[in-house]
Amino acid sequence: MTYLTTPNKTVRGRDGSQFNYREVGTGDKLPLILLNHLSATLDNWDPRLIDSLSQHRKVIVFDNRGVGLSNGNVPTTIEDMAADVMHFLELLGLKQIDLLGLSMGGFIAQTFTLKYPSVVRNLILVGTGPQGDVDIAKVGRITNIDLLRATFTRQDVKEYLFFTRTAQGKAAGKAFMARLKQRTMINDKPIKLTAYRRQLSN
Q1: Helix (H) or strand (E) holding 115
Q2: Rounded to two decimals, what is the model's pTM?
Q3: Interatomic CA distance for residues 49 and 36, integer angstroms
């Protein structure tokens, strides 16, 4: 089974929480948990990346609280988002993991590792930075500017955020977007504007 064909799954807590997730791959290695970027849902993970990572291990991606098909309201602090990651892992019965955080997911991953160090064996940070960094504070403004640029040019904002504006970068961005559109099974629910704004408040 590939990321394009794996179904959505749901795990529910006694407190009424419901987390939407997907898992791909098998093996004896610790599962790899992926934490997504600002405004992203499960449908924003590159299927080629997930399939590569899951060749010899289980890879799990999920929507944090209030995102996509996970219920509740998006937390307004990174600390609360990290607590939700722990809640999700507890519901799955996972005691130890490898953890990858992309962009905002990297903020959550760093906070999670500091709060629950015994749970994380390996931490992988991608396209992110530390709390308090002067450039990190600009993320919200840059994202909103790129969102406007994407709207005016009828492109997806991810083509501006994650790819250079060189010919090679533009081609890579187009190829990436084409891969995201290949999924034919039930998709995730796009993030709501209110949820996106709550994420930006962090």
Answers
A1: helix 104-115
A2: 0.88
A3: 13
